[in-house]
Structures are given as structure tokens and as C-alpha cells.
Amino acid sequence: MDRYDIAILVELQRDARLSNAELAARIGLSAAPTWRRVKWLEEQGFITGYRAEIDRRKVGLGVLAFVRVDADRNNGATTKALEDALRQQPEVISCHYISGAGTFELQVMATDLDAFSRFSIDTLLNLPNVKDVHTSFSLGEVKAGGGVPLEHLRG
Fold it and tell me: DSSP assignment, residue 122?
């Protein structure tokens, strides 16, 4: 990756709706090499997709919860089954293996506390291999939807 590839990533994180001509002008290349570089970044997996950022509150999702799931780690197959089940839950917007206490850390969105409670009791606690869940609720977002930091690539 060179400075143009890094510039492309920076600009597309700021605004993925840029036309190729606008992107080329911002990074200081002509349109054709810019297009080839974007295609290469996509093919190599640096760019994994494009999507709109949606204000969760405007679409009626007033609750953002951070949920630590404790799983019985008796074997890899049961942990894999839990992973697969978590991937299928639309309310779970991110899921990470974590160190320390717990197995997974989830971000979960729900319309309100009642909906979150139903999801937690009816779904999460009934997924395979779940031993316990511990929840913290967001009281306000300080920073969200940030791009991937790329300063380390600029050398």
C-alpha cells in the first residue's frame, strides 16, 4: 500500500458515496488509476463493503446494550454452535471473543427496555451453551461509527 491507497481508504471512510471522479480529485490522481486502486483494495479485502450509517434512535431503537455472555467452554463444537446462533440474531450488531471474565461481548440494539428484556430472557438465555449474561446500558454516545485509524500506515 502506498500513500494513494491510504488516501483512498481515508476518503472512503469519510464518505463512501464519493463518485470516482470526486475521489480522484481528492487524492490527486486521475480517474482511471483511482478506479483500479479501489477495485484492487476491494479484491484484496482492505475494503469489505459499503453501507449507510443509520441513526438508531430515528428508526426506533432507543436501547443500546453491552452484554457479556458467559458460556460453558466444555468443547469447541458447543462454542461454535453458540457463535453461529449469535450471528443469526439481528439484535446483535457486534460480537467479540473477549479476554478476562466472560466469553463474548455483544452490542445489542432494541426498541426499548421491555424489548431488550424479552430478547435477553427468551432468546439469549436459551442459546446453546449460555451459562449467564451480564448487561450494561449505554447512557449516551460520546463517539460512535468511527473509521478505522490509519495514521500508522503513513509512516
Answer: I
| Tens digit of each residue's pLDDT (9 = 90 or more) over 121-133 | 999 999 989 999 9
Residue 131 cell numbers, joined: 451459562
pTM of the model: 0.85
Question: For residue 51, which phi and psi values (nearest 5 degrees)?
Answer: -160, 160
Query: For the sheet containing 130-137, what is the strand order?
Result: 92-97, 104-110, 63-71, 130-137
